[in-house]
Amino acid sequence: MDERDMKLLRKQGRRRKNELIIKCIISLLLLIAVALSIVLIKDVLIPELSGKNRKKPQTFAQEILAARSGQSAQGSGQEISEKDRIAVADYMAAQYDYDRAIAYLTSAESYTSSQALQNAVAGYRATKESCTAYPLDQITHVFFHTMIKDTSKAFDGDEDEGGYNQVMTTLSEFAGIMESMYAKGYVMVSLHDMCTVNDDGTVSRGEILLPPGKIPFVLSQDDVSYYHYMDGDGFAQKLIVDENGDVKNTYVEDDGSISVGDYDLVPWIDTFVDEHPDFSYRGHKGIIALTGYEGVLGYRTDEVYRTKEAGRVTEYQQKFFDAHPDFDEAAWQQEVDGARAVAEAMKADGWEFASHTWGHISPTAAGYDKVVQDTERWLGNVASVVGDTDVIIFAFGADIGGWEPYTADNEYFSYLKGQGFNIFCNVDSSQYWVQFGDTFMRQGRRNLDGYRMYYNPDMVSDLFDVSSVWDSARPTPVPEM
């Protein structure tokens, strides 16, 4: 082979190499184009079903709410395409609301002539036929306190660290727990799915219909007041309604700036359900158990912030007034208005509220007269802001009786029933404890906190593996109760 042949071979080799490089570049560009197309279809063309573009278009959200209330957003002059109509129905069906999804599509003027609408209805009916009623006495109820956003501040060795370590859960732990429960097939249901309160005050068993493999559970959170003592300890500041209509948390950064995000249970669950609608039964989420002595949802709404009544202002409240010397009745009214706006947005998005007693009291330890005073304060200062409720979730895991059913002879029960309470929750370490009486329902709750995870990991193994969610920033050993 002479030099000319060698040059030719080298030239051909370079050409083949260049062709290979060009083919690789073209293939890479094609892959990028496909990926961008998928993103465009998922996040732009059908954002209502997208997890990344979490917030559904306002018209889509309105249509879901209207459909659930038996109305139609079209009645207000809005138009909805067949594709969007099916998307709305799919969303309801994903949350096990098959009857409403069916009614929503069959009520469309184009139903009889639309094969797509008819096929969707047939699918919903087939799925509904696979559902069975879940045993109500086997429904677990889990609860949390306020989430720790910044562990370096919560676990900094000060006097509150031990309490935080015992009864709080870090945000990363909570996320891991919920993701594990979702993977196992758990679905959030309401206490009012479990029972029906009749006009005569009697309480009947409800019915929860789910497909095979799905497990209902009740979720609640205590003390969503963002108490003064938590300031600077790595917790959210309050709940707000942002510019998109979403409920979010504010958080005070080290430099004093305010961040907005999913820093506690409520907005985290909202985001997760938007991404995984099948985690919610018919749009229902959790129950927020509120005290009232320092306000609600991070707002200083209690009457003492308005009256500054001598003898009722606590040390923490006095520090608040010292730091905010201009806090007057107008400022208090702004707090009330802000809290009401958040509460209304939460209720519209599937949340419920419960009494946790106004002053975080143990009823029988406080005594009957104190319970009456405390309940009047809760109704006057909390229900007036977030709305009425018939659920009471006792503070301290207390109760107003033993494990036997309540009777009319129980003065605490008779009084609370007379004030409109029908559902009563305590704390119990059992996997589930549910009791139905003629005029009430009771349910035990399981605390998923540092104490439970550290000392009794086997007691929560039906929900999650503690070793997979445990936050390494949590000090050990966790203090004993």
Describe this entry's structure for a reader.
The structure is a single chain. The radius of gyration is 27 Å and the shape is globular. Helix 3 runs antiparallel to helix 4, helix 3 runs parallel beside helix 5 (115-129) and helix 4 runs antiparallel to helix 5 (115-129). Mean pLDDT is 88; it is low at 1-13 and 26-55. Helix content is 42%, strand content 15%. Strand 15 (391-393), helix 16 (411-418) and strand 16 (423-427) form a beta-alpha-beta unit. The protein has three domains: 3-45; 49-130; 133-469, Glycoside hydrolase/deacetylase (TIM Barrel), CATH 3.20.20.370. The N and C termini lie far apart (90 Å). The chain has helices at 3-45, 58-68, 82-94, 98-106, 115-129, 151-154, 161-167, 171-183, 191-194, 265-275, 304-307, 315-323, 329-348, 363-366, 368-386, 411-418, 450-455, 466-469; strands spanning 132-133, 140-144, 147-148, 169-170, 186-188, 195-197, 203-205, 209-210, 215-222, 238-241, 247-252, 258-261, 287-290, 352-355, 391-393, 423-427, 434-436, 441-447. The strands form five sheets. Strands 2, 5, 9, 13, 14, 15, 16, 17 and 18 form a nine-stranded mixed β-sheet that branches. Strands 10-11-12 form a three-stranded antiparallel β-sheet. It is of the alpha/beta class and 481 residues long.
